[in-house]
Fold this sequence. Notes:
The structure holds 2 protein chains of 2 kinds. Chain A is mainly alpha-helical. Chain A is built from 26 helices and 2 strands. In chain A, strands 1-2 form a two-stranded antiparallel sheet. Chain B has one domain: Helix Hairpins (Orthogonal Bundle). In chain B, helix 1 packs antiparallel against helix 2 and helix 2 packs antiparallel against helix 3. The relative contact order of chain B is 0.13. Chains A and B meet through helix 26 of A and helix 1 of B.
Amino acid sequence: MNLLDFSHSVGWLLWIPICPLIAGVILAFFNPTGKFSAIVAIAALAVSLGFSLKAFAGTWGYETHTLTHNFTWIQIAGVNLEFGVVLNALTGSMVAMVCFIGLLIFIYSASYMSHDARMGRFFCYLSIFMVGMLGLVVSNSLLLLFIFWEIVGLASYLLIGFWFHKPSAAAAAKKAFITTRIGDLGFLIGLLWAFKATGTFLFFDGGSGLLESSQIVALVASENVLWGLNGAGAIALFLFIGAVGKSGQLPLHVWLPDAMEGPTPVSALIHAATMVAAGVFLVARAFPLFLADEAMLHVVSWVGAFTALFAALVAIAQYDIKRILAYSTVSQLGLMMVGLGAGGLALGEGGVSIGMFHLLTHAFFKALLFLGAGSIIHGCGEEQDIRLMGGVFSKMKVSSLAYLAGTIALCAFPFTSGFFSKDQILLSAWTSNSVVFWISAFASLLTAFYMTRQCCYVFLGKYRGEGHVHESPALMTVPLVILAVFALIMGVISEKKYHVLHYLSGTDFHQHETTVVIISVIIAIGGIALGLIVYAKAKMGIDVVDPVKRALGTPFTLLEKRLLADELYEATVFKLWNALAINLTAFESILNTLVDALTAVVVSIGNFFSNTVDRKLIDKVTFDGTCTRIYKSSRINAFIQNGFLQGYLRILTAGAVVIGVLFLVFAR
Amino acid sequence: MELTLNHFLVLSAILFSIGLVGALTRRNIIIMLICLEIMLNAGNLNLIAFWYYSPNPELMHGPLFTMFTIAIAATEAALGLALVLAIFRHYKTVDLEQIQGLKE
């Protein structure tokens, strides 16, 4: 095994995660000053981007090819644990997207975090985050993917809790870590199951890999291993639990909105390009396993649809600009899952491209929205409540226009990038499951509505806050403009000119259905129009009741409280935990009573002996004399027993040395 | 120069001695813990060295043993640090000379 022998294989893919790793190590050990740390991290990621673009370019036109480079990691008792990297269309498009958006976010952070004293540490964490994300994209082994997956989890913990002096940030970091851990446990079970069933961790291994047809056929042959799922479906189910945790699907979505406590570039990184995309990517990577059992495709699409609807509903009633975006991310991730599940049902292998296409377009416009929100928050004096904004448009033209570009892309306004990818999701749902279709369509309508609401709050009217609104520096606005261009035109170019759907899965399918296109146009424009009707002229402010709240009343309050998901967990999981603790305490007190009773019996027996037998017989005859002797000898003991820890240790050592010497002398 | 078993044993002995002297003489309880870890790792080095130069290294006894030791060392470090924290909260010091509770 030689890690650096890249001459005749795709082993050079390893450099993509290794470059940020080098930067992370440099930043961790030398902890350079702010500006220099940004340069190191950005330079390393730029090199990664170079390799990523090479990977991306290399897969164009070879969408059905899969190149791998495998090597043995360890070898125990005849079992080889192999690691490797894989290059196919999925890898190529994903690394290019992650590196590109990551680089823009890094550049943006260099300005955003320039006032923070711990900027070097921040870039160190960001680099480690990129290591995890890029590593999990390129890895060809379920185990290696899991390792990088955990690195992503660790880095997200560090980044969300970056301002750990705020108790809410520290709590959010813990919540994110623990909640995703629940999903990770599912992933771990799936991983071990896959290894037990197939004896390999590799995805592609010249015909014997986990995702290749011979293994899938063998897995499918073992029917009804778990709740009616076949062997492949059971593994897919556990992997999906991991994806649910990482991608914030119901019911493990609670960590994602709280993760907004981190610095805004972190939110952009976690919620746009990387961490939450990891779950969707895992499903896409392991898609053959999901395809092998239709029930799993149904599970994926239903979970996705409910998540999309739930989060879109909650987003309507939020006032924190980043929290709205967070719920919209949850909602869009749900739609990606719908794309994968329903796409798999409708198109078979082609399904992977539908979810992935939305993942890619969403990454651009959601990164744009978060960075734009960061710029607006920065401009408004670190204010995040949209009720205290307003009239921002005239004072921050560049940021606002970029933000609006992201908004219409998210609303799937015709001919923006979101329109093309969401249209494909709706189309696949239309052909496979009409209930899922209507849920997704309604969620999309709500998306357009709440984004319009948010924009009305932020951009229209008079400024309601107390800060001095100003435009952000060029280092922050340039990434915004680049992302805005991508958000607007990427969909049309990639789908119409380069046939990205064909590229992503290597299969052909018909592209549009007029009814669905009309419905999605109506949804987008209708949602925006509805939002404008309600909010364009409405009075807004911190002490003014929201127009929708006035109309809806209690249901809106419920939405404001995020449909009580946190409270539900508090009422169930925490209560259960507390109840267990209380019951155990009660049990213990019963035990204590028993022990006390027993003690009382023993004591009375002891008293009898001591008073009659002991005092009279033993004490006076023999004991006192012995005691006196022992008392005298105990002074020597007390000298040794002086309570000084290392004194004991020295005696122990001396004893060990004596035994060693005896051993050497006598044990020939 | 070729590395032989003795080199590793000498290195391990040196590490062990450093750890031992540290554990016996340093007054700071955290440094004492670190010294204990150094001693453990000297032992690990011995295991690996003996395995590597053993007649049949493919049995993987050495690394397996070492992995267990490392896992146990990790738990021991966690436990030790937790104890140090508790001791610090109680005595407000990490100086071993001030901590004489064992004699009671």
